[in-house]
Specification:
Elements (H helix, E strand, L loop, with lengths): L2 H20 L10 H8 L3 H13 L3 E3 L6 E3 L1 H10 L1 H4 L7 E7 L18 E4 L5 E5 L7 H5 L3 H15 L2 H16 L1
Parallel strand pairs: 4-5
Antiparallel strand pairs: 1-2, 3-4, 3-5
Helix pairs in contact: 1-3, 1-7, 2-3, 7-8
Length: 182
């Protein structure tokens, strides 16, 4: 597994949640390698390799009706909650301008008391906030989240799990479960 596999799986979960919410199918072209590459800013060969890796470990399966890639949401959530922070740890570094993540992101802001003034951000030259830099799961995360707010929510919650203590991680786990199943 690579970190971009989780990024791609969360995008597929976002597409599936949009389908469930609207009770209509999302454009099937978004599920293609080309569509995912355009939406995420990831190379087509890397998308294809990621899909194959995710299928081989059981985090993704093909829909029987239309052959679209569908994330195994239960297994994905378990991996994020119990393994992600060990496999892909987040380490805050220098102060930079960027997009708020983890506890500073809109879906968690104000829900937890923070111990300091500094927030966590994904580095982005066009970001409006200043805080401690956290390397995102993949370098194109800032590009992709501007196109999909549901993906932003999922990735910020993943960072809260990677960075937080038990109380913070537990709240992020609950919100992520709701987000993935919504």
């Amino acid at each position: 597994m690579k970190s971009q596999d989780i990024f791609i799986l969360l995008k597929l979960a976002s597409l599936q949640a949009q389908e469930n919410k609207d009770l209509s199918s999302v454009d099937a072209a978004l599920y293609t390698v080309r569509g995912l590459a355009e939406e995420l800013g990831v190379g087509k060969s890397e998308i294809n390799n990621s899909i194959n890796r995710s299928i081989s470990v059981g985090l993704l399966k093909r829909d029987r009706k239309n052959n679209l890639p569908r994330p195994n949401l239960k297994a994905l959530r378990e991996f994020i909650v119990y393994g992600l922070k060990y496999v892909f740890p987040a380490k805050p570094s220098e102060i930079t301008r960027g997009i708020p993540t983890a506890f500073a992101a809109p879906m968690l802001k104000g829900q937890l008391m923070t111990a300091g003034e500094m927030i966590y951000v994904w580095p982005d030259a066009k970001g409006r906030d200043k805080g401690q830099s956290v390397t995102p799961l993949f370098k194109t995360v800032p590009y992709a989240i501007k196109r999909d707010s549901r993906l932003y929510t999922s990735l910020a919650l993943v960072d809260a799990i990677r960075l937080g203590g038990p109380r913070e991680a537990h709240l992020a786990e609950q919100l992520l479960a709701e987000s993935l199943e919504a």
